[in-house]
Amino acid sequence: MFAQRVAQQSLRRLAVQQPTSFTRTALSKFAAPSAIATSNHYAQIRPAATQTINQNDGYEILVKQRRNRPVSPHLSIYQPQVTWYLSALNRITGSTLSGGLYVFGAAYLVAPLFGWHLESASIAASFGALSVPAKVAIKMGLSLPFTFHCWNGCRHLVWDTGNEFSNKQVQQTGWTVLGLTVVSSGVLAFI
Asked: Predicted confidence band at 46 (pLDDT cuts at 50, 70, 90)?
């Protein structure tokens, strides 16, 4: 970058000091600033009339201009795709899992101060007292975001290798992630 600036400044100086010798060289064809300096160009001039206005009038003009601007397309005009949902769900599950871990970790650290019983034996005893459908529901609720985030992370790792990038492959891997998530969550929930 520095070398380019030095070369450009040198060409400008050469063009200004010796315009006739510079226009004969092949360099004059490539250096736009030197062509401008040697008057080998056509300058387009557009006269503009200006007027002074107060701040309120300027704001009103701006508001009128904004009303005439086209509205950019919104998500509502596009057909929903599985990749949208998986991208949003990946972020949501990642935030939920990490947030839950931080909240539980903080609660576990302050539990002795408040008299809470969050040690493993207490949690296992209270979980064991639940009915089977409640156990399955809790395990499914915990395993779904975990397994989805893990499988979608594997999908992203495959993408990092430069594979599975066509539209068809992205759709297929998306549905594969959903299928693997449901199956592995079910297995973990019923263990």
From this structure: confident
Say how far apart CA 141 and CA 127 lie, in whole Å: 14
d(CA 28, CA 41): 11
CB-side neighbour CA atoms (13 Å) of 174: 17
| Residue 143 contacts residue 184 (beta carbons within 8 Å) | yes
| Helical residues (DSSP H) of 18-166, grouped into ranges | 19-24, 32-37, 55-68, 82-114, 120-128, 132-160
Q: Extract the tokens encoding 186.
A: 């079910």
Contacts of 184 (CB under 8 A, 6+ apart): 143, 147, 151
User: How far apart, in whole angstroms, are the C-alpha atoms of residue 57 and residue 34?
Assistant: 43
Residues 34, 55: Cα–Cα separation, whole Å: 41
User: What does the block give as tokens for 66?
Assistant: 């904004």
Say which range, 46-55, 90-99, 104-113, 167-176, has the weakest mean pLDDT.
46-55
The per-residue pLDDT for range 51-85, each reduced to its tens digit, is 888 999 999 999 999 888 877 777 677 788 899 99
Q: Which residues contact 139 (CB under 8 A, 6 or more apart)?
A: 188, 189, 190, 191
Reported pTM: 0.60
The HSE-up count of residue 102 (CA atoms within 13 Å, CB side) is 6
